[in-house]
Amino acid sequence: MQRAAVLLVLAFSTSTFSLDNGLMRTPPMGWLAWERYRCNTDCQNDPENCISEKLFMDMADRLSEDGWKELGYVYVNIDDCWSSMQRDGQGRLQADPKRFPGGIAKLARYVHDRGLKLGIYGDMGTHTCGGYPGTTLDKVQIDAQTFAEWGIDMLKLDGCYSNSTYQEQGYPMMSKALNATSRPIGYSCSWPAYQGGLPPKVNYTMLGEICNLWRNYDDIQDSWDSVLSIVDWFFNNQDELQPAAGPGQWNDPDMLIIGDFGLSMDQSRAQMALWGILAAPLFMSNDLRTISSGARAILQNKVAIAINQDPLGIQGKRLLKEKSGIEVFWRPLYKGASALVFVSRRSDMPYRYKTSLKTLNYTPGVYEVYDVFMERTVSTLKDSTEFVVSINPSGVVMWYLSPASDWQEEADSLRFSEKLIGRKFHRHAKDAHAPLVL
Length: 438
Ligand SMILES: *[C@@H]1O[C@H](CO)[C@@H](O)[C@H](O)[C@H]1NC(C)=O
Ligand SMILES: *[C@@H]1O[C@H](CO)[C@@H](O)[C@H](O)[C@H]1NC(C)=O
Ligand SMILES: *[C@@H]1O[C@H](CO)[C@@H](O)[C@H](O)[C@H]1NC(C)=O
Description:
By secondary structure, this protein is an alpha/beta fold. The protein contains 14 helices and 17 strands. The chain binds 2-acetamido-2-deoxy-beta-D-glucopyranose (3 copies).
């Protein structure tokens, strides 16, 4: 088993050096305003949902009081439309005085007092996407300094009202400027998303040296179609994208929309599972004040989170795309463990997919299989054992597999199959060649 684990790691090793700020050795987790709240600045008529200090204080309260923080969801992130339309007399960005009467520094203290971190948003161009003041090259230093003085912990730097030559200068310049403040500030770069997201236009080696995470592709919207288009793009381009990720440097397929309006519970589990395979940042964009218990359970699933947060930080891949509409994804994890995700893109009924671990490239051995969303160990599987998983339409089955430690040699296989037969799988001797139904 030891040998198998080493081979898996080597096959996926990343060779790049990451941004040296010591941050985000596992994908960052938290909450981000954009997808759910957009540029809603109408606090007069919609005080609960407008971009204001109240919204971020409410979410900080929920993260710290409802069990999120302990699971790793610690960032409270502001997106666009927070600032005043004008810089102040000294050329510094300032928060909209009506919607953030206490200012950002006070909001940062509020968030820090609850053991959380505060993220903010800027734009490497003349204006933000929402038309607020951007960070032009002459403002990079002063903006970095302002964010540091406020106690900001993370910056998302968007790329509207800009161009490729400008971004080529500006994104590395901001990285240096953040470092020069001597405050550790996580750095999210939207740069690749504005350059098509792929080499040779995008240099992922360089991105890993200057950013902690980066948006590669389109914004997520509140629909299953949007999730699928993102998933397809990331896995269709996995050979280019997968090696770019690692501790301190992550591909970002955008926010989790679990708890909003567009996904069923099955689709929500699918997003959680695939964001785990992708080693993606987990930024929820939802209303934590009113989230359903079903959505909360998915987002707070400990094993799904542990897979996402695996210390090796190796992004996973799509192994198979079957004509039947079943797709299989795999991610290698710490200590020879791994995650498997079976996705159904069908729209008829639960599909019974038959395979074996050997077919999925597993090295010979015996593996203990834990079903992440059923929250229980479902089987011990020999690599050659055929099994059947039942996958709901637009749903997933997510497994955490670890090498069974007491496995010796072929000699044990008889004892092993007896053990299986004796368990809850209703396998009778005469069905010895039938696949195991899980
Ligand atoms: C790129 O954007 C900058 C800033 O707006 C502008 O000064 C420059 O002329 C632009 N360059 C091109 C090639 O459009
Ligand atoms: C700045 O960069 C240096 C050298 O790469 C690194 O040692 C240091 O921790 C960085 N500081 C911050 C605040 O990011
Ligand atoms: C990409 O960036 C790296 C590191 O900055 C550099 O060494 C390399 O030459 C760049 N690659 C290309 C194709 O420009």
